[in-house]
Amino acid sequence: MNNNPRRIFGAQAKACGYLCALFLLLSGCGYQNLTRQPIGFSVYFPVLANRTMEPGIEVALTNSITEELLRSGIPITGEKDADYLLSGTIISYTRAPLSFRSDDPKEVNQYRLEVVVRMDITPAPSSPSPSPLPPRERGISLTSSSNYFLTGPFNRSEAAALKTLASDLAKKATEWITRE
Questions:
Q1: How far apart are CA 64 and CA 54, in angstroms?
Q2: pLDDT higher than 80, residue 136
Q3: What is the mean pLDDT of residues 145-162?
Q4: Which end of the chain is less crowded, N or C, counting CB atoms within 10 A of the terminal residue's CB?
Q5: How many CB atoms lie within 10 A of CB 162?
Q6: Whole-angstrom Cα Rg for the chain
Q7: Which positions ≥6 away from 149 have C-beta within 8 Å?
Q8: Where are the domains of the chain?
Q9: Fold adopted by 38-178
């Protein structure tokens, strides 16, 4: 029998390594599915009305809100099958300069996009007795904004800023609908 200290230490280190690997495998990666359980009502959500001069933003905002509603467990159905009608109007869309270039004060360096959407949720006329919604104010105005640089290491396009703004607005709208 060989009682070489190096061989014993090596075997112990190897066993400890296997034990650590086994522990990591059994503990999992830490992923959690945070999707909510389905909510007890469905909504019909048509494309937002656009009262601004900015073409196409109603599609981007509607898609973002629809995705967030589905992610939160609210089923989107046709108008005849819905418990509630969710509607909205884009009231304003502004692009305001925030900062200017130091070498040319007439050149804009950073803009802020801001959108205001008026939303409302009402019982669908075709729904005999929809699940009651928690009390909430009717007809809420939701505002969302996003800043973007035109130059420098943090530059991004207006389209990318609109995507960030739409995501934020969608979360606010969903929170308003699901708030208890």
A1: 17
A2: no
A3: 93
A4: N
A5: 22
A6: 26
A7: 109, 110, 155, 156
A8: 38-178
A9: Double Stranded RNA Binding Domain (3.30.160)
116-140 mean pLDDT? 79
Three-state SS string over the chain comes to CCCCHHHHHHHHHHHHHHHHHHHHHHHCCCCCCCCCCCCCCCEECCCCEECCCCCCHHHHHHHHHHHHHHHCCCCECCCCCCCEEEEEEEEEEEEEEEEECCCCCCCEEEEEEEEEEEEEEEECCCCCCCCCCCCCCCCEEEEEEEEEECCCCCECCHHHHHHHHHHHHHHHHHHHHHCC
For residue 97, what are its two tokens? 């300069």
Residue entry with tokens 């530059």: 155
Both tokens of 146, joined, read: 């996003």
What digits encode the pLDDT tens for the residues 78-123? 999 998 999 999 999 999 999 998 898 899 999 999 999 999 998 8
